[in-house]
């Protein structure tokens, strides 16, 4: 038995695990403000084409930064020429920013896609969720405010757009409600789900636009089998503390949820069953400690584009990079002080991590080549549900693999 130095990892010490490299560190312009509250980088986001990176550095400041995908570097704010017509914008949102999401759409015949001379099918937009409950939409190319969405009564903790270009927006708020907005229909709010006294902290559309997931207080994990709130959601039970974040794999087959109970749970989206648990505290805390203060709150997670890499941010001071089919400890770690948010770039080459002091760091691990098996599985699961996989005329072993049953405890290849 090893001598236990760190209770954050199951088998290895942090210095025995590969360390991710910090490729860039952006410092908040208000880091030295005498008012500490409100200076947190609660959210960071990448556009789907990797052309922009957005970062809320605290105290109302939104940074909209062009990104050079070829060089994997951000645009220098001092360069007034911009990057291929894209310029850096520092925007005062008027109040503290809690959530960010990029959206882009295509032209709908007969739909009103014009707001203040901006066409959504031509310009990238950024949605910001604010402390008052307002949602402001910004034109990324001009940095100008386009429209405000008003209906929430408390902080908007999370926002997400559909990935199919239909510009449907879901918002999650501390007021206990989730709302759906149609930006192709003049920003119309067309559906609401309320669950008080629950406060919602996270929400996601699945990439295939077939599911909505939402997480929050009271151990809440909800999953809708359509992108509307017209039916009752599936409640996924497994966490024993507040659930802070959620994310789908690119093929929509898996949902990950992160909780203050020190754990991440990987769920089968179609069957609503638990496949795997990733721990951040060892030995695993008892229910009474997992349900209270334990210094290992998991605050944010993000799936990479390969569908196997999952990044997590934990209060123990480590950012972890997991391979979800590999047992035990993460494949890479990075010590980051007071990290509170994270998101992979659209190419998975960089992970952005927001910190409590308003800074953001870009992390990168060593490159790994995905297996042909995994690439085939991801391709198949993008178009086939779990039930459709059952009907495939292939061996049962392949059926099990396509249904991610290699994630179940005790099943290893």
TrEMBL record:
PROSITE patterns with a match to the protein in the record: SOCS, WD_REPEATS_1, WD_REPEATS_2, WD_REPEATS_REGION
Keywords noted in UniProt: Repeat, Ubl conjugation pathway, WD repeat
GO biological process: intracellular signal transduction; protein polyubiquitination
Coiled coil: none
Source organism superkingdom: Eukaryota
Signal peptide as annotated in the record: none
Residue ranges of WD repeats: 149-191, 236-277, 291-324
SOCS box domain sequence ranges: 363-408
Protein name: WD repeat and SOCS box-containing protein 1-like
Organism: Biomphalaria glabrata
């Amino acid at each position: 038995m090893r001598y236990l130095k760190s209770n954050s990892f199951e088998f290895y010490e942090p210095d025995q695990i590969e360390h991710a490299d910090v490729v860039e560190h952006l410092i908040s312009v208000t880091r030295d403000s005498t008012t500490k509250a409100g200076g947190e980088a609660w959210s960071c986001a990448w556009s789907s084409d990797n052309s922009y990176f957005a970062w809320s550095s605290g105290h109302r400041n939104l940074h909209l930064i062009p990104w050079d995908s070829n060089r994997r570097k951000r645009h220098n704010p001092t360069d007034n020429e911009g990057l291929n017509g894209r310029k850096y914008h520092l925007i005062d949102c008027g109040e503290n920013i809690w959530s960010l999401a990029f959206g882009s759409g295509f032209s709908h015949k007969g739909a009103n896609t014009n707001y203040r001379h901006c066409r959504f099918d031509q310009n990238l937009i950024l949605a910001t969720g604010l402390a008052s409950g307002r949602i402001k939409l910004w034109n990324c190319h001009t940095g100008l405010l386009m429209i405000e969405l008003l209906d929430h009564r408390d902080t908007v903790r999370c926002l997400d757009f559909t990935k199919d270009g239909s510009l449907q927006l879901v918002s999650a708020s501390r007021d206990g409600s989730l709302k759906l907005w149609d930006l192709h229909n003049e920003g119309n709010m067309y559906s609401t789900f309320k669950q008080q006294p629950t406060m919602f902290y996270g929400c996601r559309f699945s990439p295939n636009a077939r599911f909505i997931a939402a997480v929050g207080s009271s151990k809440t994990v909800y999953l809708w089998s359509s992108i509307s709130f017209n039916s009752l959601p599936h409640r996924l039970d497994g966490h024993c503390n507040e659930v802070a974040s959620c994310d789908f794999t690119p093929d929509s087959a898996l949902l990950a949820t992160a909780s203050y109970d020190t754990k991440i749970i990987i769920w089968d989206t179609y069957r609503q069953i638990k496949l795997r648990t990733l721990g951040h505290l060892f030995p695993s805390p008892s229910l009474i400690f997992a349900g209270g203060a334990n210094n290992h709150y998991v605050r944010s997670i993000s799936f990479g584009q390969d569908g196997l890499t999952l990044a997590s941010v934990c209060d123990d001071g480590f950012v972890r990079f997991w391979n979800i089919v590999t047992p035990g400890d993460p494949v890479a770690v990075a010590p980051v002080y007071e990290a509170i948010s994270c998101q992979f770039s659209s190419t998975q080459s960089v992970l952005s991590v927001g910190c409590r002091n308003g800074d953001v760091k870009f992390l990168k691990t060593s490159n790994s080549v995905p297996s042909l098996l995994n690439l085939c599985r991801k391709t198949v699961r993008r178009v086939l549900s779990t039930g459709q996989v059952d009907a495939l005329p292939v061996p049962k072993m392949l059926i099990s693999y396509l249904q991610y049953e290699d994630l179940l405890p005790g099943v290893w290849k």
